[in-house]
Write a structure and sequence with these properties.
Layout (H helix, E strand, L loop, with lengths): L2 H7 E5 L14 H16 L4 E7 L5 E13 L6 H11 L8 E12 L8 H14 L8 E7 L3 H6 L3 E2 L9 E7 L1 H4 L3
Parallel strand pairs: 4-5
Antiparallel strand pairs: 1-2, 2-3, 3-4, 5-7, 6-7
């Protein structure tokens, strides 16, 4: 499916408070359980907000993602030296803070019926532009604790590891620097 077909046939919207998704299967029980059962609880507790990508005609949920606030800080790095290298590469001296605002992609799943059709990449582009358009929050980074199997997907979408500490873990902390595309907007 081309991006034009995706934009023509699907729409992204925030789930309403207490709204539940009735049917979704991305092949991962944890991701399914979150959108089917836990997402309203996270919203009510002000921990995360979920969004769905629905087919415009059938209203079937084809994909979803959930966002929460995050930060990139010294505690994410092995040493202060590594954190300083990270900061020096991205910020002028006046902007060297102890932490930097980020949004975490807590969950992202594509229904098995729609896998391999670029919906996940379109959602990542949506999320990236969401934080840049009109600079709603002053957010600099997107982060994700990616499952090992999902790493190629996130690498393809220009996310990179934040550090090397978790390279052999079940999940890997990745980030995307929104300033890389901010000038394009």
């Amino acid at each position: 499916m081309t991006r034009e077909e995706i934009y023509a046939n699907f729409e992204v919207r925030k789930l309403a408070a207490n709204e539940t998704v009735k049917s979704f299967d991305c092949g991962d029980d944890d991701l399914n359980d979150f959108i089917l059962n836990d997402s309203p609880l996270y919203r009510k507790a002000l921990l995360a907000v979920s969004y769905v990508m629905e087919h415009k005609e059938t209203r079937k949920v084809a994909a979803y993602f959930s966002l929460a606030n995050d930060r990139v800080s010294l505690s994410d790095f092995e040493s202060k030296t590594e954190f300083n290298k990270f900061r020096q590469k991205r910020f002028v001296n006046e902007k060297r803070l102890r932490s930097y605002p980020a949004a975490k992609i807590c969950r992202l799943g594509v229904d098995v019926q729609f896998k391999g059709q670029a919906l996940g990449s379109v959602l990542l582009d949506f999320i990236k532009s969401y934080f840049i358009a009109d600079n709603k929050t002053g957010c600099r980074f997107l982060t994700v604790d990616a499952y090992r199997d999902a790493l190629p997907f996130y690498y393809k979408n220009l996310f990179v590891p934040l550090n090397d500490e978790d390279q052999d873990s079940h999940t890997r902390l990745l980030f995307f620097d929104l300033s890389d595309i901010a000038d394009e907007e």
